[in-house]
Amino acid sequence: MHDTEQTHPLRVPKRMQQQVQLGAAQAEQFAAAFERLAAAVDTVVLGKQEVVRLALTAMFAEGHILLEDVPGTGKTTMARAIAAAVSGQWRRIQFTPDLLPSDVSGVTIFNQASGAFEFHPGPVFANIVIADEINRASPKTQSALLEVMEEGRVTVDGRPHQVPQPFLVVATQNPVEMDGTYRLPEAQLDRFLVKLSVGYPVEAAEIEVLRGTHQRSPEHLAAVVDTDTVAQMAEMAKHVYIAEPLYAYLVQLANATRNHPQVAVGVSPRGLIALTRAASVFALSQGRSYIIPEDVKALAGPVFAHRIQLAPDAAMRGATGAQVVADAFHQVSVPLPASAA
């Protein structure tokens, strides 16, 4: 491990150590807590360690998670397992075509006894909200999540209401090609920090699922961390050191998606901020208090791909956002310190 750190081009130089606010001990504590939480979720979601760790990375980066896959692959199980492993308040919303916005955010009702209007909060007033099959609801209902996902509050009848903190939305959706689904608008897709696909399990994991399904229900999962710990770990991630060349590297990657010939709309500044936050958490989960280019490469696909709007002809030819992200990495050189340039 020490050899790798010494030879890496963006390892924090000793003369800059005073600028790093997190020490090695703090990074190792973060990594240990992160691993305990991931291991707990792994007992329920078998054979999906990478997806689980990406989802937890989004949670500690204070972002929201979108899980897309065909029915029956464990999207809801993963969302419930994450909620169960955090000892906070959680709610589940089953999205259907007849669901109303007030069913999500809450409603103001006149109380005859008191002679005043009273606000009755909806299920979004929880630390973790599972939005199950979000793209089965109408666009009007989907938009009810826009404000609360971005600002952490709900406005009903002109009055804002703050949701509990920390606040996380874990949404699941079926592929848009399936019947009875409504495509999420780009503005709402951009508010999800990562979009992940659970996928089918490998054969060995699927055999284990068949052997012990009743033993691996999220209801039997004990909480590993509380919401205060999640908030503290999220705060730690804001103090991860980022070398100056990496800022330019991130912007150049975003510009490469914006100037790609197959892209109509590239990655937004919000997407850049999201990748920076996610890479900071990912670095801490590896026991480091600073970001390296490999952190950016590991997170760019899940963070960037769903934010890229392809040109119509490119979409018809089967191009994907993931391919655009891969092209961006081929076009942009990995930054090196001035002495090695």
Describe the structure.
There is one protein chain. This protein is α/β, with parallel strands linked by helices. The chain has a domain at 40-222: 3-Layer(aba) Sandwich (Rossmann fold). It is 44% helix and 15% strand. The protein has 15 helices and eleven strands. It has helices at 2-7, 24-42, 49-60, 75-85, 101-105, 139-142, 144-151, 186-189, 203-212, 227-237, 244-258, 269-285, 293-304, 312-316, 321-331; strands at residues 64-68, 90-94, 106-111, 116-121, 128-132, 153-156, 159-162, 168-173, 192-196, 263-265, 309-310. The strands form four sheets. The chain has a five-stranded parallel sheet with strand order 2-5-8-1-9. Helix 13 packs antiparallel against helix 15 (321-331).
